[in-house]
Amino acid sequence: MSLNKVILIGNVGKDPVVRYFDSGNAIANFSVATSEKGYTLANGTEVPERTEWHNIVAGRDRVQFVEKYVKKGSLVYVEGKIRTRNYDDQSGVKHYVTEIYADRIEFYSLGRRPDSADNVNAPVATTNAPAPAPAPSYRAAVAEPPAIPDSTDDLPF
Predict the structure, then answer these.
(1) In terms of C-beta density within 10 A (0-12 exposed, 13-18 middle, 19 or more buried), how is residue 30 classed?
(2) Could you tell me how many helices (H) and strands (E) the chain has, helices first?
(3) What is the structure's pLDDT at 108?
(4) CA geometry: angle at 106 spanning 101 and 108, to 5°?
(5) Whose CA, among 3, 59, 79, 128, lies 20 to 30 Å from 22?
(6) How many CB atoms lie within 10 A of CB 91?
(7) What's the pLDDT tens digit per position in 40-50?
(8) What span, in angstroms and rounded, lies between the C-alpha atoms of 41 and 152?
(9) Pairing between β-strand 50-59 and β-strand 94-107 as defined by DSSP bridges
(10) What is the pLDDT of residues 50-103, one digit of tens each?
(11) DSSP character for 153?
């Protein structure tokens, strides 16, 4: 058995690019940044903050959601599969590109799980202004993976 699943929570780096094809299909591409905080080791060595950039590819029904709602700076939850492709440039040099093919994209609010029924990307209100309308989320109709039996007795540690 094998599993190819990626879960990311991060900020969108720039507005998505949406391309439409003659066949009627469309694809949306955008980048998401995830960061690990810096820290100091016991011996005084400082490890700086590390930001990783991820290329996200959204197809099918997810394109309309991305085009309408996802913008630079949005905090998003992305579930998908990691895929690597390669191509040769004009000078014959082979390039490799790693992308996340999104199965699920949602706005993410800190302190709330992405599965919550009222998942919105609403800022914390500091005035008496009315709360913004809930932003929709997209959840692909995909089959849940089979449950993995709990076999902690078989662990080697």
Answers:
(1) buried
(2) 1, 9
(3) 81
(4) 125
(5) 79
(6) 5
(7) 999 999 999 99
(8) 32
(9) parallel
(10) 999 999 999 988 999 999 999 999 999 999 999 999 999 999 999 999 999 999
(11) G
Distance from C-alpha of 1 to C-alpha of 79, rounded to nearest angstrom: 20
Contacts with 61 (C-beta within 8 Å, 6 or more apart), sequence order? 138, 140
In whole angstroms, what is the distance from residue 74 CA to residue 137 CA? 13
Mean pLDDT of the chain: 79
Joined together, the tokens standing for residue 68 give 């309408």
**Which residue is associated with the tokens 């076999």?**
151
Distances (CA, A) of 75 to 85, 110, 145: 27, 9, 26
The mean pLDDT of 17-26, rounded to a whole number, is: 93
Give the other-Cβ count within 10 Å of 58's Cβ: 29
